[in-house]
Amino acid sequence: MTKILYVEDDSSSQRLVQRLLTSEGFDVLLADNGIQAIEIASRERPELILMDINIGGLDGYEVTTRLRGLDSLGTVPIVAVTAATLKGDRERAIVAGCTGYIPKPIDIDRFPDQVRAYLVGMTDDAGSAADRAEYLTEYNQRLVQRLEAQVHELERANAELQKLEKLKADFLLLTGHELRTPLTVVYGYLQILKSTPEISASPATEGSPQYLLARASEAVERLSEVVQDILNVSLINANRLELAREPVFLHSTIQSILHNLRSFGPQRQLSFELGSGLSQIPVLEGDPQRLHQAIGNLVSNAVKYTPDGGTISIDAETHADVVHLWVQDGGVGIAEDELPHVFERFYVLEDTSRHRSSKTAFKGGGLGLGLAVAKGIIEAHSGKLWAESAGHDEEKLPGSTFHVLLPIGDPLARMKMP
């Protein structure tokens, strides 16, 4: 069957032409707009394209010109089927690249024969050279005017987006500060209650005051971590993240991270393999608390995506001026199309409709800030963070590896990364 693409944004016109040509034995493809027409034509390579001129977005003239620039479609007949029937409309269509012109409303008795004629090579008269030059100049000027208008519109839209982004960043920063004050008060009073003789001396059995206060303290600590992530990502986005400059012992930092993870929530029988390179890391200079958070987020991420009984490996290599640390999990991995986005703010891999908040549970949810915060902290130390994975597979478990490069010496010094 001869394949024909009909570009038309009016559904009633689409149905009429499709039924008419299908009854004549043609295979009719439909496109609602110019972008869709270019995609379908490039993929399907029809033998004929029927083009409405007055479509939204890219108009028929512009779509025709674009199609003529594609090698696979350079010689395909493109026929304007349009209600644009004023003086010069036909000539403009020819100048844009159309080989024929059929005015609307179409004559349903003649239309199939007209289509067949264009399929076998009929072309409309292009007019005199002087007329073509005049209409071509007019057409080029109109394209430039359309492009200028689009550029101005994009500039306005971009300015509005920048304004909204600043409002969002300011809101997150203020929200984080507002939440920290009551959380600090709640946590302080919980600690006071836990230390009272009546409660501290009582058994920590389930349902007891000591047990309930411990669970409440854990919940407040978890909420404090979420608030801190919101604050950190806001500071990173505003380029206002401040670093302390103290000695950093990465090996001890990792030991502390693993201790915290093991004591938080139920055990999941995960194995942690620490390589010998960790003990060889020299003392770095940086912010110990923020690096603890950044690497802790990487380890926590590995825990979330590694099934029960899996293994997580952490090791490092020390070079002349840089430490290369990596966290490798035996988890479900990351799909190729997801990999470039895992460090974006608020980006989550799991289905958010099945979200469940947990720091250590398999596929436990979060706000999608952990990796973004880790990347911001590492880069604030003049370091580099990236991820590698062979893909996502919940049965074969290809796993993922997160790599960290940190400079040896002053973290605020400029450093060229490989």
Account of the 3D structure:
The chain is of the alpha/beta class and 418 residues long. Strands 2-1-3-4-5 form a 5-stranded parallel beta sheet, with helices on both faces. A 5-stranded mixed beta sheet has the order 7-9-10-12-11. A two-stranded antiparallel sheet has the order 6-8. The radius of gyration is 32 Å and the shape is elongated. It contains 11 helices and 12 strands. Helix 2 packs parallel to helix 3 and helix 10 packs antiparallel against helix 11. The longest helix is centred in the middle third of the chain and has 67 residues. The C terminus is likely disordered.
Overall shape: it is elongated
Q: Beta-strand percentage?
A: 15-25%
Q: Give the oligomeric state of the chains in this entry, treating copies of one chain as homo and distinct chains as hetero.
A: single chain
Q: What letter string, H or E per element, gives the SSE order?
A: EHEHEHEHEHHHHEHEEHEEHEE
Quickly count the domains: 3
Integer-rounded radius of gyration = 32 Å
CATH architecture of the largest domain: 2-Layer Sandwich
Structural class: alpha/beta
Overall pLDDT: 86
Q: Describe the largest sheet.
A: 5 strands, parallel
What strand line-up does the widest sheet have?
Answer: 2-1-3-4-5
Distance between the termini: 56 Å
**Stretches with pLDDT under 50, minimum 5 residues:** 411-418
Share of helix, binned: 40-55%
CATH class of the largest domain: Alpha Beta
